[in-house]
Write a structure and sequence with these properties.
Oligomer: single chain
Shape: elongated
Strand order of the largest sheet: 4-3-2-1-5
C-alpha cells in the first residue's frame, strides 16, 4: 500500500502482487544468542527484574547486574535495553549483544511514570554516548566505498567532501 501510494495513479495493480516485486532488509544486525534474548524479552513483558552478566567494552570487564528492563529498541542493526541498573543505581542503556548470561528474577517492578523511551531514542538515533555535547566524527573512504557511503543516511547534519586523491570524507 505504501509503495502504491508513493507512485499514485496505479489503482489497477493488485497490492499483494506489488508486494512481491519489492523487498528490503534492515541493516546487518548484531548476532544475538536466543538464550540471552528470551529472558530479556520475558523480563520486559512480565515486568520482572533481570539478572545478567554484562561485558562493558569501555572497561573490557564483565560485571554482574540486576536491571529493571523498561524498553527494548533496535538501532542500526543492534538491540539495546534501557532500564534501571542497580549496580550503578541509575538508568542505563545496555547493548544486548554484550549480555553474556541472563535470567529472570522473581521480583516485580513498576516502570516510573515519567519514563519515555524517546528521551533515549532521538531523531538521530540512540542516545547512549557518554558526552552531553555532540561529538564531531570524521570518516575517510576510498573512492569506491565513498560512492556507496554517500548513498546512506548517517546523520541529519552529515556533510561529504571529496579530496584531490579521490577519497570521500564524511563528517
Amino acid at each position: 500500500d505504501g509503495l502504491l501510494a508513493l507512485v499514485g495513479g496505479v489503482d489497477q495493480v493488485n497490492p499483494l502482487e506489488a508486494s512481491s516485486l519489492v523487498s528490503f532488509s534492515d541493516a546487518p544486525g548484531a548476532v544475538i544468542d536466543p538464550y540471552i534474548l528470551r529472558p530479556v524479552v520475558r523480563a520486559l513483558l512480565t515486568r520482572q527484574r533481570l539478572e545478567m552478566t554484562y561485558f562493558t567494552i569501555y572497561r573490557e570487564a564483565t560485571t554482574r547486574r540486576q536491571v529493571d528492563p523498561y524498553h527494548l529498541g533496535r538501532y542500526m542493526g543492534r538491540w539495546f535495553l534501557i532500564g534501571h541498573d542497580y549496580y550503578r543505581n541509575k538508568r542505563r542503556v545496555f547493548a544486548v549483544a554484550q549480555i553474556r548470561e541472563a535470567r529472570v528474577l522473581d521480583q516485580a517492578f513498576v516502570v516510573p511514570s515519567g519514563f519515555d523511551p524517546r528521551n533515549y531514542l532521538g531523531e538521530d538515533g540512540l542516545k547512549y554516548e557518554r558526552s552531553p555535547q555532540p561529538i564531531r566524527v570524521e570518516l575517510a573512504f576510498e573512492r569506491k566505498a565513498g560512492i556507496v557511503a554517500k548513498e546512506l543516511f548517517w546523520h541529519p547534519k552529515q556533510q561529504f567532501e571529496e579530496s584531490p586523491d579521490g577519497r570521500i570524507h564524511l563528517s
